[in-house]
Write a structure and sequence with these properties.
It contains four helices and no strands. It has 92 residues and is mainly alpha-helical.
Length: 92
């Protein structure tokens, strides 16, 4: 039976008022961060704007890296305008 009494751990000392206050302060800070995180996730409009901005930046990087498609698009648009002008001139 002496083994059973030795196995029982002594209770932890009670925290001081300063330790309790520090623990409460940290818990409040963590709770504040959690609330802010949840509020950010719930703000659909802000998240949508952020996704649009990310997509816009990605598109700009792609366009700046490869300017050939822009030149082809401009040339195609000019060709279409030229064809329209030629066809209108023939009708007169």
């Amino acid at each position: 039976m002496s083994e059973q009494t030795e196995d029982k751990a002594t209770p932890a000392p009670k925290p001081t008022i300063e330790e309790l206050r520090a623990g409460i302060k940290q818990t409040r800070a963590e709770l504040g961060e959690t609330v802010q995180s949840l509020a950010a996730k719930a703000d659909v409009k802000a998240r949508a704007k952020e996704q649009v901005e990310v997509a816009r930046e990605r598109a700009l990087v792609t366009v700046r890296a490869n300017q050939v498609p822009i030149a082809i698009a401009v040339a195609g648009a000019m060709a279409v305008v030229g064809i329209i002008l030629v066809l209108r001139g023939r009708r007169r």
